[in-house]
Amino acid sequence: MKKSKKNTSIVNKSAVRIVVFGVVQGVGFRPFIYRLAHKLHYTGWVKNIGFGVEIHLESKTKTDFKDFLNDLQETKPPLSQIEEIILEPAAFLDLKDFTIKKTKEGKSFVFISPDISVCENCYQEMMNAVDRRHHYPFINCTDCGPRYTIVKSLPYDRKETTMESFAMCEDCRNEYVDPLDRRYHAQPIACPICGPQIHLAHAKTGRKIKGGIRKTTSLIKEGKILAVKGLGGFHLICHALNHQAVKRLRQIKERKTKPLALMARNLEIIEKYASVSPAERELLVSARRPIVLLKKKKDIRGISPHLDELGFMLPYTPLHYLLLEHLDLIVATSSNKKDAPIMKDEEEGIDALCDYILSHDRPIHMRADDSVIKVVDEQPVFIRRARGYVPYPQRVHKDLSSPRHILALGGELKDTISVYKNGYVVTSQFLGDLDEYQNFKYFEETIQHLTRLFEVKPELIVADLHPNFHSTRYAQKSGLPYLQVQHHFAHILAPLLEHKIPPHKKVLGVSLDGYGYGEDGNAWGGEFLIADYSSYQRFAHFQYVPLPGGDLAAKQPWRMALSYLMDAFGSEIPDVKALKKVRKNNIKGVMHMVEQGINSPLTSSCGRLFDAVSFLAGTSPLEVEFEVKAPMRLESAADEGTQQSYGFSIQSQSLPFQISFAKTIRSVVQDLGQNVKTSSISSKFHNTITRIIASIAEKAKKEHRIDTVVFVGGVFLNKKLLHRATAALKKQGFSVLRPVNYSPNDESLSIGQIAYALQKERNNR
Ligand SMILES: [Zn+2]
Ligand SMILES: [Zn+2]
């Protein structure tokens, strides 16, 4: 929080004007101010203005209102975020009371809160046997409950939410209109008399079943698979320690080994299975309740095979709390078939995925998955940013502000969209891969939702450079002017925008991922770009190697292993144990493809290099279920103690410099021949990438006086690499920037695209 630069101790006879900027609308801020003024016996008024609230405060006695300002900052509503407070003298109007003035909708950027976990007050009421909302699964207040997923449009008012069809009972209405009540203007306010109700049904027959949550709990204990409607969609739930149930859930979801998320009743249960650092604990118990990836202490069969982490979350809706009252640990995974978006309505085919359905009659307007985070160096790294974080606005550097509205479409895989208006960017939840038809529909749904919610009328669209991405085609068909931005450049611009780096500051962007379309038409992915918001220079990259079979190479890591072996040894490739699993004819075929350049585009992909080494080291299967599986297993295998690394070479006669891994691969093969442990091969490889980053950064410092390095791209979800590379560069005196509130993977492309468009606008002014 930034305090006002202005002097906050001005003594005024008896009246002041206070303007509070930040996330202070739709979060119970005005009633909070009302209650505070009441408590301290001040008169005046409060109203919403563009991205803030304005307060007029007066007192018949001489005061500096310090008590008010202190309380304002120390007891503000949990969902609010104060960016700046301005205080100035005002005329004394001799007002008789304190009022909340009606908001007129104007040009302002009106904030909508993310969905927030049930607060302590509501939880206590729900557990209180004599409270009128005892065991009511939809209890909420001004400080907690559903928001983003139930709002249809602005202004944020009950009739614009999916609660519109529930008429408030007299008790609820009295709470709703009383500014001194903690449910004053809580739009989703409800109780057992007037609010939503749950219902349990048999999935195949649709037959209703009595017993509610109690019955649901016992069905889970019996090993059944349940679909449970939450905030942003249905979860598929089963008992986490019932291996047969977990196995069946995996079959239903068509998910062989990809980790499943767990929901535990409390922290003590989580700590039985995983270590929890203070920063991880803080995230787990925060009101946003993400899934946090934690280091395994004790394995749970079938949940996260071959990996050293488990993903845990705590209950976040009242319904989850009630469900886990008599259960310790459940699997709670998104209800979708492979590669499709999370289901939000029963009609979407939920019955095919479970034995029983626990649903309710409060519709979900916008779907959103659970967010997934890990902690590296005490800071969050987002693997997926969605429920609980969306639609938090991101302020841009003041010099980048533009009067135009902008829509950015991201890339193709793990997509998000971002909208820009009046100095703020709002980034959508994770939308999945757009090459899947249903995800593309979800992408369109979300564009509609965000532009409507924030009253954005796009005048400019930004898309990726790839000519065949669905998002690029959407931009072309929009009829609006559009810009295209290179993938790895957009990656680098995202944290520049997030951390409000000023225009003209040049950084070295280390952009390491699986694939992005390059200016030369090749598949880029191991990129070192010297960049500012306007442009970039490709300073260095991983040397191109053939990608035999194109997309198929990402699914079959042995193809990349062969490609790198041929790069290091020519056509006389050595005998490597891992290759014995591959059919001789297939090896021959791929070698022929590489030699003749048949269906073998060139790539500098860092992800594919990790695939190759993972396969050679024996940590990857022949075929992978999802793109990052082989790299994740290689990371899991790496030990912490090994300091050594492998050789590499940098061709630095001309720009861009090229990094060759021929030496690295030869040394890996040598280690394999000498039966060096997988853990140390993996660790040495991680150290090699770290050394490469460090030496390119040194060259950038020498030649371009670069002092700031940015780490982006999906490869930086790798905890060990991120930690080691950050430490190495800090030791060399660099500042290291990385995304903290957004994911380093392709989810952040749309933010970077907005940054580029804003700079372009600025250059045109
Ligand atoms: Zn509450
Ligand atoms: Zn009611």
Per DSSP, what share of the residues sits in E-state strands of 2 or more residues? 15-25%
Helix content: 25-40%
What is the β-strand count? Answer: 32
If you compute it from the alpha carbons, what radius of gyration comes out, rounded to the nearest whole angstrom? Answer: 28 Å
Structural class: alpha/beta
Describe the structure.
The protein is α/β, with parallel strands linked by helices and 765 residues long. Helix content is 31%, strand content 21%. Strands 6, 7, 8, 9, 10, 11, 12, 13, 14, 15, 16 and 17 form a 12-stranded mixed β-sheet that branches. The protein has a 7-stranded mixed β-sheet with strand order 29-30-26-25-24-31-32, sandwiched between helices. The chain has a 6-stranded mixed β-sheet with strand order 18-21-20-19-22-23, with helices on both faces. β16 and β17 form a beta hairpin. It binds zinc ion (ZN) (2 copies). One zinc ion binds next to α4.
